[in-house]
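Batch 3, record 17
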Amino acid sequence: MANAPDPIETFRTEARELFELLETTLLDIEANPTNKELIDSAFRALHTIKGSGAMFGFDAASGFTHHVENAFDMLRKGQLAVSHELIEIALAARDHIRTLIEEPDAASPSEGEAILAQLAAVIGAPPLSLVPQQTQAKAEEAKELHTFRIHFRLAREALSMGANPLLLLKELQELGTCTTVTVTDQVPPLEELDPCGCYLGWDCILTTDQPASAIDDVFMFVIDDMELKVDVVEPEPKRLGEILMDRHELNAKELDTALDQQPKLGSMLVDKGLISPDTVAVALAEQNHIKKEAEKTAKADSADIRVPAKRLDDLMDQVGELVIAQARLRQLANSGNDVHLKSLVEEIERLSAELRDTTMGIRMVPIGSLFSRFRRLVRDLSRELGKEIVLTTSGEETELDKTVIERLHDPLVHLIRNSLDHGVGTPDEREASGKPRQGNIHLSAIHSGAQVLISIKDDGRGIDPARVRAKAEENGLIQPGAELSDSELYQLILLPGFSTAAKITSVSGRGVGMDVVKRAIDSLRGTIDISSTLGKGSEMTLRLPLTLAIIDGMLIRVGEGRYVIPLSAVEECVALSAEDDLRATGRDFLNIRDEVVPFIRLKTLFKVDAPPEEFQRVVIVSAGDMRVGLVVDQIIGDYQTVIKSLSKIHSSVQTFSGATILGDGTVALILDVPRLIELGQDSETQKKAS
Amino acid sequence: MGTVHTLQKPVEILTLGLAGEAFALEAGIVSEILDLVPITLVPNGPKYAPGLINVRGKVVPLIDLRVLLGMEQAANSINTRIIVIETLLDNEPTTIGLLADKVYEVTGIDLQAIENTPKVGMTWPAEYIRGIGRHNGGDFLIVLDINAIFSSAK
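Prediction for the assembled complex:
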């Protein structure tokens, strides 16, 4: 354990908070034995302790907690009543779990047995036992990384033969970290160019844990008439000149001559006609690639500074204020004619933008640290469930706000557990349906504009829409026979109290989970998309903002008031034609490319007492795959928005998620898009029903 | 209880006018007094908190005490001021702006307990009032209990 103190220490810190929460909750339950919310909260805390405990190898603690959790599940379901005795035992159990996690060596098994015996007596179950689970800590062997320099050029007529260089490049990229530079030196002048010919060459610098044969495999089908050169690169950042020499583009003497004329070696070489600009670009790309790879490994060793998160938050707040002050300054400068002032304002604008980016950068952490925590979870759980499942990950280097990453942990644990438990079947089951025995869960992260998409994809059974429908009807979530698309049905899974699992396992299926996941993602201003093919697998995609502090917004006007819509939620803006406006008095729908989109008149919603204006616009916003149109009077433009939360006094107003300060110093409210979409969909269902 | 207790030290208060009546706040919680600034209305917000204002880069809720005290609202005038205070809301320190028709002065008075004051003629909720004081031995001043106001107005 000494060689990996970090994740375990993180877990202990988290566990400490949970223990504190559990203790106060237990005491609260004792005072209000009928409060269901408190019982739920205690149950959830136990559920998380159990789950995370198993993930970090605290099997004794996890096994023990499972029994306590069971008791609380019975409380939740009303099969058991709260008694002082039970709380007494639960508190003792909490202390025992804490000992098991904080000082596993000091915990006495007999004490645990005694608590479990008492617990069994109270809940009237047969004696519970502590089954010690054997786990071997097998450290993930880090495979050795190699860097290859790949140069390839397809035959001139390759395209007409059906070769697709894009696919080849994509396959290379899948092998590892790949930097690609296109070589265009053989592209002829336009009049000589054969539009079907392939004149381009590619230089790829690939860092991978795969052997060189994997690269040959990529080119297997085109190898016959192509130019391919694969070299191994030394993993040290090299000087440009050395790289060129390695590549036989330059000899040592030529280099020395050129070096005399520093500093711009690359351009000097080009000027001297020794090499072409392309060659320099390729070599520069290689240099950068290797430098980056070296930085990645260096990151682990280099000394970091630990800073209290509070200071970062303060810094972020101050930068936010600076951005606001700068916007006001710009407005002031633009109203006058002072050229000096204007150029100074531009300078300050640039500086504050850079300062903002740097400050945000401090808070950005690669998501890989989070992903790596799930390996153990998948390994241990799949063994426990008798399944063969591997977890693959991609996009570990994707960076997002530290607070976002921290708050993503619990929802992701739930989602992965769901996939493990319900998604992927047992090896025999899989074989019977013609799939490989080994299941796969793929966890990926990718940037998409100002958002990060995190997806959990499995190749399991998929979600059965019919079962979801049956369950939803049984729970009264939808009317029998209600017309819903599959994706609308999948969204029902996220509602509280919904669980399709027939049996309870230690992994999931207690009806906690998905609604908790939804709430956690909502609080991060994210959305969840669910897609699934029955028998093929399912995919959950979380769309999250990069940061919680600053968003790109669209400034709009409704009546006199100005509001901000998060730009990431905006799909398109259309004009509200007079025709639609009139027709839509009873039915507020728009036809957007043959799709019916409900719309909300913000003027009516905000009770603005003014006649509708002549040129109304509809801003189509989306969350997940739900869309709704918002009718506004004017679209003012985009606006960098520093988010300020609303005070307790206004937290009950549900259509706003926060506020910001505009360039002229006035306050503008930020619309809560998911909430508005709910409103729009509700009115749609009502109208459908009536 | 029921005892009459007069605080030993005179209390520093800020006196203000609301719908023609004289009120006072403890001066200790007041951080600044602003002229009227642009107010952003919060659609569908609570009636006593109609909007938001910008106080030195902070978004601050603006409270209309007249609504809370059941008084008639009047249009803002040249004398209208915003009193910025710091108070606890659900144990969270919060900055709040209070709309006042007029702000007079900061002064010291001897504060008497509410039990000692006649209930007759009191049209506003008694739990919002911390006590009644006499300004320079002359007019009566109603000292508001800000904490009580915000713990009930939620």
